[in-house]
Amino acid sequence: MDETYDVIVLGTGLTECILSGIMSVGGKKVLHMDRNSYYGGESASITPLEEFFKRFGIQQPPASMGRGRDWNVDLIPKFLMANGQLVTMLVHTEVTRYMEFKVVDGSFVYKGGKIYKVPVTATEALASDLLGFLEKRRFKKFLEYVMQFDENNPKTLANVDPHKTTMSEVYKASDLCTNTIDVTGHALALHCTDDYLQQPCLDTINRIKLYSDSLSRFGKSPYLYPLYGLGELPQGFARLSAIYGGTYMLNKPIEEIVMEGNTVVGVKSEGEIVRCKQLICDPSYVPDRVKKVGQVIRAYCILSHPINNTDNVSSCQIIIPQKQVSRKSDIYVCMISSTHNVAADGKYIAIASTTVETNKPEEELQPALHLLEPIDQKFIFLSDLYEPIDLGKESQIFVSKSYDATTHFESTCQDIKDIYKRVTGMDFDFDEMKRKHKDICGDE
């Protein structure tokens, strides 16, 4: 090929497909390639069930699990915050026209060996069994303060500097106990560790407000999930890229990333070199440009019942804060079912995940697995976490991060925005993307 692309994207994981779509909307000439014959990469949804079983060395699932084609099992299970960044991207680009979403039925948090519904409004705080009588009042007051907090209005700040006052200091001023801080930081603000406590409070306050705003949209929980699984998301953004002239090539072996000096100039596939100015890829395509920063363990569990003590909901998230089980990082559980067209009738898929901290990873998931019993079938999978070793400024190779253990997409969206800024030199602007899309597609 003699033509040169502005950007070549390698891998069809969700991060890469979103970036491909965004770059195409922005007017860049994009070529998207993947060694696999399917969309999704590490974040694919596997169907039929027989294919998922084969990945773990089992030829056939038991007949009790129904028709294989009724199943779609996510390799990287995550929910979408209803008011979060990914939903904003979906709405602004109208990718929502390609898929349907269903509200997740409940959000729960683990305390003292039991699970409780996450309270997020002042009224819920007063009614919750999660908090003691006096603590309910303090938490109610804290939530009221957070909801009216406006960094641009000094009257709402109560002498707090959003950019200097730490979240630990805000908690102390509110006189919240350790358990309430656990719930707030991990089940509402969705932090993975307690590192945030010594960081400026603005980010955490905005996270809590995002959770509350997302919850208020639908009432049951702040989370959404696409019918037929997360594999619909990368395909939706692939369609978006194609509308704007993006070219997709699946099942293309990548033989070499071609460099001139220290800068990328193309990709070699099947003996042919395709030239480019910039390259975006997932870590698997450039093992020499990434570093391992940890591991995630996931347990895929097939159940014949909803999770106990969740009011028999057909879908939910459970967060087990680190301190509740003497860990450094949280444990996550997400459950979906036939109501999302991802399992046979009467069956449920529950996936527990966490960042590995010991040399006995499966034992680290036991608090979560105990909540899921009895389990019909369980599969354990360990995956390495990678990050790029540099920002790609010299090489013009921009590498995404591996998907973490969280059960929401906020950290993934932050990675997308970070890569976008490094590629274009500009901050990602949701409204600008919406304008560009409307200019070309009109108000259909």
TrEMBL record:
It is found in: Cytoplasm; Golgi apparatus, trans-Golgi network. Pfam families: GDI (PF00996). The keyword Cytoplasm applies. It comes from the Eukaryota. InterPro entries: FAD/NAD-bd_sf, GDP_dissociation_inhibitor, RabGDI. SUPFAM superfamilies: FAD/NAD(P)-binding domain. Transmembrane segments: none annotated. GO terms for biological process: protein transport; small GTPase-mediated signal transduction; vesicle-mediated transport. GO terms for molecular function: GTPase activator activity; Rab GDP-dissociation inhibitor activity. The keyword Cytoplasm applies. Keywords: Cytoplasm, Golgi apparatus, GTPase activation. GO terms for cellular component: Golgi apparatus. Belongs to the Rab GDI family. Regulates the GDP/GTP exchange reaction of most RAB proteins by inhibiting the dissociation of GDP from them, and the subsequent binding of GTP. PANTHER family: RAB GDP DISSOCIATION INHIBITOR, RAB GDP-DISSOCIATION INHIBITOR. This is Rab GDP dissociation inhibitor. It comes from Eptatretus burgeri (Inshore hagfish).
